[in-house]
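> forwarded from #structure-qc
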């Protein structure tokens, strides 16, 4: 399974350049949930309202200047 979820805070943007690199700009953060290496998910068998089990999920929370390479799926922090 190869997917990601990207959540943007208010006053924050994500720009993607021609090298498929996402760069964060703004006062908030961007959260990236990368499930490209997901090894188990119980979501298909879980009843509504019950907890879901997922393993090998990567989480990145990036602030202004942080980057995420969409091809290699590597994140780098911005300058503090």
């Amino acid at each position: 399974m190869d997917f990601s979820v990207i959540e943007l805070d208010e006053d924050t943007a994500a720009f993607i350049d021609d090298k498929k690199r996402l760069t964060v700009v703004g006062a908030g953060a961007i959260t990236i949930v990368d499930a490209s290496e997901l090894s188990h998910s119980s979501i298909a068998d879980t009843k509504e309202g019950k907890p879901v089990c997922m393993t090998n999920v990567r989480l990145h929370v990036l602030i202004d200047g942080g980057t995420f390479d969409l091809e290699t799926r590597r994140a780098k922090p911005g300058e503090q």
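QC bot note: The chain has one domain: 1-44+63-80. The radius of gyration is 14 Å.
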